[in-house]
Amino acid sequence: MPQTDARLALIAEWLSRELRLPVTRIEPASSDASFRRYFRVFAGEATYIVMDAPPQRENVRPYLEVSRLLESLGTHVPHVHESDAGRGLLLLEDLGTTLYLERLSAGDDPEPLYRDALGALAAIQVRGREASHELPPYDRAALGQELALMPEWLLTRHLAHAPAAEEAATVADSFAFLIREALAQPHVFVHRDYHSRNLMVVGERNPGVIDFQDALRGPVGYDLVSLLKDCYIAWPRARVIGWVNGYRARLAHQGGPAGASEAEFLRWFDLIGVQRHIKVLGIFCRLWYRDGKPGYLADLPRVLAYVRETCAEYAELSALGRFLEARVAPALPRANARVLGAPPGAGVRA
Fold it and tell me: How far, in Å, CA of 69 to CA of 63, rounded?
């Protein structure tokens, strides 16, 4: 019996025999970039979501712990009805099917959606001051490991580019600068993937927040830049700055870490954004070369554009910017076309 069928049989038995739910149907709900899968369960008048996390691949205990913390802060995360951590099975509240990305891509007014998302984020960062100390730190080692994904998976594997000694030194110096800047920011409860594919449009206490199991205590700008410089949808710089300034004012009003000025807070936002997006450049390539998932490659041009734009704004990143302009930006369309079959230049921002 294939492993997939064995897991489905396990889920069905768990629901019907152990939890005694009157299950009438189980259907795929979604999958993500990990080995987790999700199924929608129909049981009488109710629906649920089952998270299937094979224990040899995934550990659901961090999810359960972070879920507990976020729920205590009033965040609308899927309530955990039942769990079997040993077998990697969770029975969760069903938050529906509508992602923020779906509504934003369809042309819905982003203002009310972002107002809700920013309000929920502020609550996490302000109310979660004590809870954040129960999370692992987003420390120098973690930041460095993430940055190292880009040279390995984007440069070497996807672009087949071996940086010359001077280029490697530029990258290393830039990474060291980004780590120092990240560590200098006030640290808060960080979701780590607070963006339009992990926010659900729900009728009560919008948004529903998912995929939070990797939370850490880290830089105040991290989740904000994940949301406003989203890897899956982009907004004009002026609009983003308006949202950032409004969020800072909200934090200041609620007693959160708002920095000494709008300029300082925007710097925090921008620079941790470069760290995040450099990491994502590596992760999206790794998802193809290691895990066989090519769909994220089409988002690389947007992510690279964020890094290039910020490097042009900050003198400390000018050398990294020149490297990206010379070596990465011209090579990415060809590399993507090789994998995706798209014509060179398609989808790439100048």
Answer: 10
> Closest Cα partner for 79 from 102, 56, 46, 57?
46
Name residue 209's beta-bridge partners: 199
CA pair distance 171, 307, nearest whole angstrom: 13
**Taking CA 133 as the corner, what is the angle to CA 131 and CA 137, rounded to the nearest 5 degrees?**
130
Spatial contact of 64 and 79, defined as CB atoms under 8 Å apart: no
| 213: helix, strand or coil | coil
CATH number at 296 reads: 3.90.1200.10
Answer yes or no: do 110 and 242 share one domain.
yes
| Whether residue 276 sits in one domain with residue 180 | yes
| Three-state secondary-structure class, residue 91 | strand
Q: Are residues 245 and 335 in the same domain?
A: yes
142 and 29 belong to one structural domain: no
| Average pLDDT, rounded, for the chain | 94
pLDDT class of 341 with cuts at 50, 70, 90: confident
Range of the domain at 251: 100-340
**22 and 162 belong to one structural domain:** no
Crossing angle of the two packed helices 262-289 and 140-147, in degrees rounded to 10 = 50
Number of helical H runs and strand E runs in the chain: 13, 9
In a domain, 350, yes or no: no
Alpha-carbon distances, residue 236 vs 233, 242, 243, 244, 310 (angstroms): 11, 10, 11, 13, 13
DSSP letter at 99? B
Q: Using DSSP, state whether 206 is helix, strand or coil.
A: coil
pTM of the predicted model, to two decimals? Answer: 0.93
CB 50 within 8 A of CB 91: yes
Q: What's the confidence (pLDDT) of residue 31?
A: 62
Q: Specify whether 107 is located in the same domain as 233.
A: yes
pLDDT of residue 30: 79
In the numeric block, which tokens belong to residue 227? 């949301």
Residue with tokens 């990797």: 214
Q: At 75, phi and psi to the nearest 5?
A: -70, 140
Running DSSP on this structure, what letter comes out for residue 342? P
